[in-house]
Amino acid sequence: MEQRAIKGELAHLYGDCRDPTKRSGVGCTKAKQSRVREREGVGMARKGLKYEDIIMAAVALVEEKGFSNFSLRELAGKLGVQPSSLYNHVGGIQELNMAVGLYGIEQMEHMLMSAIEGRSMAEALLAMATAYRSFARSNPELYEALIELRMNADPNMRAALLRIVKPFFIVFRKEIQDESLVLHLQRSFRSMLHGMVALENTGHMTCSDVDSEESFYFMVNQFIEMVKRGNFNGCQ
């Protein structure tokens, strides 16, 4: 996990509240300023906790209990501290949820970028679909945390979420020059992948003897064949 990157993303999301020379970010209230100062001062040292340790414990708890069941009280118990002590280090459950989601972004971005490296468009689409499904199936609660992040909530969060969209643009631009068509295709492909893994993760692909993995690759390969043929009526 690139903890510094995640801390940097959260610093953007919380404005200048973490900058002791400014303290002027949107929503940087006196209470939040106090928590930031405590986080930067003796509070962290007194408990012997590190911000990165808290986030990793939160990630582990989300995977264990589920994203919807995650609470500060349980996190404090896992770390062996009082719930109130966590406020010396984090701003609250919203910040933790963001940090867990950002961790998911880091992991998925790495998997997708590794999958497409050195491959043609068709090969990359298949590899990227496999990586996407593997991540979502192996880390269902972390995937939910990532999906729960709101694209329109904050411009910095939007930029963070676009990091897992970027690989799709890279792949389609390998052989397609029409930017509007690239946009349509990446939206379609991402929707297909998310829809399938969401149904798999919630048990909606178990009512037949046909394995859902077989259906997944049928869907992906049909899409790839359509892209290779280039028959996009009304898009060009």
Descriptive notes:
There is one protein chain. The chain is mainly α. It is 68% helix and 0% strand. It is built from 13 helices and no strands. Helix 4 packs across helix 5, helix 4 crosses helix 7 and helix 7 packs across helix 9. The radius of gyration is 21 Å and the shape is elongated. The chain starts with a helix and ends in a 7-residue tail after the last helix. About 13% of the residues have low confidence.
Rg to the nearest angstrom?
Answer: 21 Å
Beta-strand fraction estimate: under 5%
How would you spell out the order of helices and strands? HHHHHHHHHHHHH
Oligomer: single chain
Distance between the termini: 41 Å
Overall number of strands: 0
Portion of residues within helices: 55-70%
- Put simply, the count of helices is 13
Mean pLDDT across all residues, rounded?
A: 80
Shape: elongated
What about the largest sheet?
none
